[in-house]
Each structure stands twice: as structure tokens, then as C-alpha cells.
Write a structure and sequence with these properties.
The protein has 180 residues and is mainly α. The protein has two domains: 105 residues, no CATH class; 50 residues, no CATH class. Helix content is 64%, strand content 0%. It contains nine helices and no strands.
């Protein structure tokens, strides 16, 4: 399984050669940030799933900070944040709002539809989207945290179980081969 994942991830030499990241080389070149095993992969996917719900362009930065703090695979954590994109962020925020509203039964705020992208441009739509999120208030904030925690926990368990399943299957296949 590690061979399949490593094909898509950059190596640590890319960090060593980057002049912008040179001041952080001691931290970013730690071996545990680049090693891929079932613990680091599961932790990286969990960190990426949690940080994927951070608003704006800070998702990958959040995933990188989590990877450094928890010493999990850095490229995989950053890659996992890409599950949120312009097509999935609004449905995820609607789900987060519903979760937050059910967790805060005293809140009577009703859901307002997100703004439509119009002829004003992408920047204007981005500002309207931020204003829409701020207007949703406490249910959205609490719902985002609860959704991020549940996605991270679920992803961690799924990766650990899938990796274990793959290993057990590989061991059984290896034991069934005749040794000549």
C-alpha cells in the first residue's frame, strides 16, 4: 500500500532545494514527517480532514502545522485537505450548520441559502460567501468543529482498518505461495 501512495507524494529533497523553506529545514526535514507507515498515514489523513474545513487558503498551512506538531506524514496531510473545493465546501458547511443547530437547541437561526456566483466576479462572490458564513453565527462555528472532529476520527479509523486489511491479505497471499 505504501508503494501506491508514495508515487503521488513529493520527496524531502524538494524541501531541501526550496530557498523559501530554507529557514525551516531543521523542522521540515524531520524523518517522521516523510516516513509513511500506517500510524503516520492515518494521522496525516486525520489532520488533513480536520484542517480541510478551515476557511480560506489556510487549510494546507493548518495541515502542515498539525503534521509538524503530531509528527505525521507532511505531504499526505496537505494532500488530504483537497477534499474541500468550491464544489464541496457549501454542502459541507450546510451539514456543519445542521450539526451545530442540533447541538445548540436554543438557537433559532434559520438557514439562508448561500450567495450565487454572479457577474460581479470571483472576488466579489468570495466576499459575499464570507459574509454569508459570518451571518450563520454560532451554529456554523460549533458545527464546523464537530464535523471536523468526526471526519478526522472516522478517517483515522478507516485508514488504520484499511491498512491492516491490506497487510493481512498480503500476508495470507505470501503464505499461500508454494516455496520451491
Amino acid at each position: 500500500m505504501r508503494r501506491h501512495i508514495l508515487r503521488f507524494l513529493p520527496d524531502h529533497e524538494a524541501i531541501r532545494g526550496n530557498r523559501w523553506l530554507a529557514p525551516f529545514q531543521n523542522t521540515l526535514l524531520h524523518p517522521r514527517l516523510w516516513h509513511l507507515n500506517r500510524r503516520s498515514a492515518a494521522g496525516a489523513v486525520a489532520a488533513g480532514m480536520f484542517c480541510g474545513l478551515i476557511p480560506g487558503p489556510l487549510q494546507m498551512l493548518g495541515a502542515a502545522i498539525c503534521a509538524v506538531v503530531f509528527r505525521v506524514n507532511l505531504p499526505l496531510a496537505m494532500l488530504t485537505t483537497l477534499y474541500t473545493n468550491p464544489f464541496t465546501i457549501v454542502p459541507l458547511y450546510i451539514v456543519a450548520f445542521a450539526i451545530g443547530q442540533s447541538a445548540l437547541p436554543g438557537e433559532n437561526e434559520h438557514f439562508v441559502a448561500p450567495p450565487e456566483p454572479g457577474a460581479a466576479g470571483l472576488v466579489a462572490w468570495g466576499h459575499a460567501l464570507i459574509d454569508w458564513m459570518i451571518g450563520l453565527g454560532a451554529p456554523l462555528a460549533l458545527g464546523l468543529v464537530l464535523l471536523a472532529l468526526s471526519l478526522a476520527a472516522t478517517a483515522y479509523l478507516v485508514v488504520r482498518v484499511a491498512w491492516r486489511f491490506y497487510l493481512v491479505r498480503a500476508w495470507r497471499r505470501r503464505n499461500q505461495k508454494p516455496s520451491w
